[in-house]
Amino acid sequence: MKKILAFSGSNSSTSINEKLVDYTVSLLPKQAVKRIKLTEFPLPIFSEDLEKQEPYPIHLIQLKNEIKEADALLISVNEHNGAVSAFFKNYIDWLSRIEYKFLAGKKILLMSTSPGKRGGASALDYVKNVLPRFDGEIIESFSFPSFSENFSVEQNIVTNEVLRLGLHDVIQNFAHQIDV
């Protein structure tokens, strides 16, 4: 059984990307999934000056080790003003400084959601283009549009049948690919 590390790129206490991660994790009962929240690993805003003045933050080292121990990653990124959130980008910046190829050997399922019809597609596209630079292999990606219209938080289900089938197919393919 492969180890999957699952998290969102959001720091919001009401994050719909966190809800999407939770739902997706529930569909992987045959996998060893570790669910984390990036807010459990607080980091200052990256700067070269700060990097030169102090050793790497302990939370950064802990997060790097969590990623290193996993075989695969399940990540849902949020979007702010048509881009990936500054919160998530900060983690990428820090991780790439401590070890540039911090995603070496990792298979990744990328997702995004938003209240809008594009489902965070711009942030998803950004991350799909950036993570391979650090040796991550994007196996699957999924953009979930109009979250509140297509997902019941109370029931923890996708209410739109087409989206539910599409997401289930992506998850099934991801699970198959990481077992290969």
UniProtKB/TrEMBL annotation:
Pfam families: FMN_red. Residues 3-139 form the NADPH-dependent FMN reductase-like domain. It is an enzyme of class 1 (oxidoreductase). It comes from the Bacteria. Its EC number is 1.-.-.-. Transmembrane segments: none annotated. Keywords: Oxidoreductase. One of its GO terms (molecular function) is oxidoreductase activity. This is NADPH-dependent FMN reductase. It comes from Jejudonia soesokkakensis. The lineage of its organism: Bacteria, Pseudomonadati, Bacteroidota, Flavobacteriia, Flavobacteriales.
